Amino acid sequence: MLIPLSERHLRNILSEWKSHYNRGRPHMALGPGIPDEGSAPRALPRTTRHQIPDGYRVVAEPVLGGLHHEYRLEKTAA
Prior knowledge:
Largest sheet: 2 strands, antiparallel
Helix content: 10-25%
């Protein structure tokens, strides 16, 4: 839970939540999908659901002070 300390802080929280809601958060009604797919990185096709492709790792980015996280695949250094 975040407690806004001022109007400016509240505006920053809402701005970050809006971005997360429209770009990073999966929406069940879309099957699951992301509403603003143009700005979201696409995952590589995989042979099974629970396997990370060779040469990649999962990176977690905290959103809203760590209350939520967005995940993406990133190439590992060779």
